[in-house]
Amino acid sequence: MNEVFENIATRRSVRSFLNRPIDREALMKLAQMGAWAPSGMNRQNCQFTVLLNKGRISELAEAVGSAIGSPDYDFYKPAALILVSSTAEYNSPLDCACALENIFLAAHSMGVGSVWINQLKDAEKDGKVAALLSSYGLPPWHRVYGAAALGYPAEIPPAPERKSVIRFVE
Predict the structure, then answer these.
(1) Which of 85, 97, 104, 132 is the most exposed place for a label (fewest CB within 10 A)?
(2) Whole-angstrom Cα distance, residue 28 to residue 80?
(3) What is the pLDDT of residue 148?
(4) Could you tell me whether strands 143-151 and 113-117 are parallel, antiparallel, or unpaired per DSSP bridges?
């Protein structure tokens, strides 16, 4: 099988991570791969905010958990978290989704597990969450459309059955 196809087919959402840091250079490469994702009208409006301090990740998880009514929320205790934010333009959620997919595929190719974190979009207006995001350098006009929780996998789940419909029309 083609190497790219193999990487896509074997990537899984990992929700259990080893207590092992990811080096800064690897995280920079992952964020750069996100930046190489396609963007509508080539606007390239995404910002990649990389949290690699476990205390800061826990502090944000606690604030998000409080905001969404889930006090034990922990982002699955990753080694790092990449927040993908952009302006509120019409294509921004799609641009951020493409960037996150690039990050997930690049991470998998490096032996790093990943999972999409979606709760920030529901919690970012909460006072404590907003203050933390601001302290990380997110502009006030940005929205966090998703985040990548990253770490070395403690376990990799099996592939679920594919249920998508593929139809050719001639």
Answers:
(1) 97
(2) 11
(3) 98
(4) antiparallel
Q: For the whole model, what pTM was predicted?
A: 0.94
| Cβ atoms of residues 111 and 152 within 8 Å | yes
- Give the tens place of pLDDT for each residue, 12-23: 999 999 999 999
Whole-number Å distance between alpha carbons of 128 and 91: 27
* Overall size of the chain counted in residues: 170
What string of H, E and C letters represents the secondary structure of 95-141?
HHHHHHHHHHHHHHHCCCEEEEECCHHHHCCCHHHHHHHHHCCCCCC
> Among residues 93, 86, 146, which one has the least CA distance to residue 116?
146
Q: Which helix (H) or strand (E) holds 27?
A: helix 24-35
User: Minimal CA–CA distance to 111: which of 2, 22, 9?
Assistant: 22
What count of Cα atoms within 13 Å lies in the side-chain half-sphere of residue 1? 8
- Domain 21-151 top-level CATH class: alpha beta
